[in-house]
Amino acid sequence: MDKKKVVVLGKTDFAMRIADWFLSSPDYELICAVPVIPEPTWTESFMGWAKKSGVPCVESGHYKDISGVQNPEWQVDLAFSVFYDKIIKEWFLAKCRRALNIHNAPLPKYRGVRPINWALKNNERKHGTTIHEMTAGIDDGPIVAHLEYSIYPEFDEVVDVHKRAREYGWILFQQTMPILDKIKPLPQDHSMASYYSKKDIPLLGDRMEDRRERSRQ
After folding, report:
1. Environment class of residue 208 by beta-carbon count within 10 Å: exposed (0-12), middle (13-18) or buried (19+)?
2. Is the pTM of this model over 0.85?
3. What residue segments make up the domains of the chain, in order of their start?
4. What dihedral angle (degrees, nearest 10) is formed by the CA atoms of 196, 126, 180, 51?
5. Which of 63, 75, 100, 142 could staple 185 via S-S, CB 3.0–4.6 A?
6. Which fold has domain 4-216?
7. How does pLDDT run across 55-65, given as a tens digit for each residue?
């Protein structure tokens, strides 16, 4: 059986962990890495990982620059987004037999940017991570898998929950991928949705940064 061709788009050590899983899998061929550019300085370089691992890398950070993607015949079996920063357009999704995103929120709640910051700002006691199908909308595609975990707004900093989220996300990813083809994605209940955009960020106040003390300096 031919291996399924996969593209991983994103950032952080979590993107590297997922990309490395695909690279080592007997069922997938990792054909390309698309890092977020500029890469964040607080985590390891996804681009550096790709070059070290011999995986073709899009140095512009834009999926439109994937080698051959403009060819009408180009197609990939799976695109997997890990905190990728660009809205993926329909023309690219049409070239993917399947496109999945892992989002740091218990969708349909906290669609959009900085979901962990907003959950702490809103004094939530639970948060979550979700794997969902990508659509032309923002974080609104059918849910493949999700889990919830505890957070503690009285002492948790954003950076603490981010670290926890990546570990829970890794568990969810590993549990989901072996049974992916058996899972029937369920539509989100849009009446339960909440969404925050970049223009809402100033409203985060002392939850804007990864630690509150930085906001008070």
Report:
1. middle
2. yes
3. 4-216
4. 60
5. 142
6. Rossmann fold (3.40.50)
7. 999 999 999 99
